[in-house]
Structures are given as structure tokens and as C-alpha cells.
Amino acid sequence: NFMLTQPHSVSESPGKTITISCTRSSGSVASNYVQWYQQRPGSSPSTVMYEDNQRPSGVPDRFSGSIDSSSNSASLTISGLKTEDEADYYCQSYYSGTWVFGGGTKLTVL
Amino acid sequence: QVQLVESGGGVVQPGGSLRLSCAASGFTFTGYGMHWVRQAPGKGLEWVAFIRYDGNKKYYADAVKGRFTITRDNSKNTLYLQMNSLRAEDTAVFYCANSPGARLYYMDVWGKGTTVTVSS
């Protein structure tokens, strides 16, 4: 199996752009889709990206996803940061009957 | 609208049992796989179990294999998690989430969760 590693925390100012990385420990990140979930304080998770770069309806286009085979990682980029984006973000992927989550990244918008 | 509502959480002693339920509405339940995902206090998300749309395929995390059983009743649009031999480390908020059709690799809609506390 593999692990997904995320930075513990990131911070940026409103209006700026932030990128959260998710590095796969073994096997190719391109082999299995990566998803991203947002969890605001005191709330349940919600899906902000699926299949690497697909946004569910209702998720603003300020959110984008990508994968980079050279670094074997996936990224979630949020542009035009708003205070409402402050949350924990989790990446997730799947392999052969196992669903793997990254440890989560706390995004602070200050 | 799509809704998932968990229930059945509570306080249970180590070694005890609990059954969680997840009532689904607003979508065609039989067209979706279903997950249980948990979150220990102050920790990240941990996948627990998955059941295919027809109930004929199930997967479990190693941490719960042999102790937890996932089932579904498609006539009642309800998902279940039977938890036996509970341990302190099972203390968590348990969420159910759905996976559309063949796209079992991701969770689409999540419930608000139900809290399980294992303590003597």
C-alpha cells in the first residue's frame, strides 16, 4: 500500500493564491485518481475536487486540481483566497479495495 | 436534496458493541456504493469500510477487520455499521458518504456524523 503526505499547515492572505501538495509514497500518483475534501471547523467534510481536477457543482472555479508525475504528487490550488476558505483539506486516493487519506493540511487565511 | 443522516452513536464500554445507521434520501440509493469514514478527536480522516451498491462486495480497513461489519438495506435506503469488540481507539465521529456508481474511488456527499465514545 501507499501513504499520502501533506504539509501540516499553510497560511496566506486574502486575495492571494495557495497550493497544497499531496505526495504519494509509492506507486505512481497518475495510476489512481486523487480527490480533495474540505472540512471547515465544526463541520463534516465536503468534496471540492474529484478525479484529479474535476470540480463538483457548486464549488467555485477558484479551486483547481492537478497532478505532477515528476514529483509524484497532487496539488490543490485555491486562488483569490477568502476567509471562508479557512479549513482543513484532505487528499484521498484509492487502490485495490483500500481508500487512503492524507493527514490533512490546515489552511489559515489571515 | 441529497441527504445522509447518521445515528446510533453513544458511549459504550471497551469490549462492547454498537450499531450505527445512515439514512439516505434525495438520490437513488441502489445506484451508489457507501462508505463509513471516521475521525478521532483532533485527528484526520480514516476510511473504515465500503459496501457496493448491491451489497455483494465489502472492504474493510485493517484496523477494524473482523470486528466491524458493514451492511445495507436497499428497501429502507439505509446503511449500517455493526461494531463489536470496541476499543478506546475506536472513539471517533463516524461519517457515512456515498460513491456514485462505478466511481467507488471517491466520496461524493457526506453526512454530519455520529459520535462514538468507547470508555469505561
Brief description of this entry?
The complex is a heterodimer of chains A (110) and B (120). Helices cover 0% and strands 48% of the residues of chain A. Chain A is mainly β and 110 residues long.
Please characterize this protein's 3D structure:
With about 110 residues, chain A is mainly beta. Chain A has strands spanning about 5, 10, 20-25, 35-40, 45-50, 65-70, 75-80, 85-95, 100, 105-110. In chain A, strands 2, 4, 5, 8, 9 and 10 form a six-stranded mixed beta sheet that branches. The interface of A and B includes residues 35, 37 and 102 of A.
Estimate the helix proportion of chain B, in percent. under 10%
- From the spread of the alpha carbons, the general shape of chain A counts as globular
The number of distinct helices of chain B, counting runs of at least 4 residues, comes to 0
| Alpha carbon gap, first and last residue of chain B | 40 Å
Give a quick set of tags describing it.
heterodimer; A: 110 residues; mainly beta; 10 strands; 48% strand; globular; B: 120 residues; 6-stranded mixed beta sheet; 4-stranded antiparallel beta sheet
List the helices and strands and how they pair.
The complex is a heterodimer of chains A (110) and B (120).
Chain A: E1 4-5, E2 9-12, E3 18-24, E4 34-39, E5 46-49, E6 63-68, E7 73-78, E8 87-95, E9 98-101, E10 105-109
Parallel strand pairs in A: 2-10
Antiparallel strand pairs in A: 1-3, 3-7, 4-5, 4-8, 6-7, 8-9, 8-10
Chain B: E1 3-7, E2 10-12, E3 18-25, E4 32-39, E5 45-51, E6 58-60, E7 68-73, E8 78-83, E9 92-100, E10 114-118
Parallel strand pairs in B: 2-10
Antiparallel strand pairs in B: 1-3, 3-8, 4-5, 4-9, 5-6, 7-8, 9-10
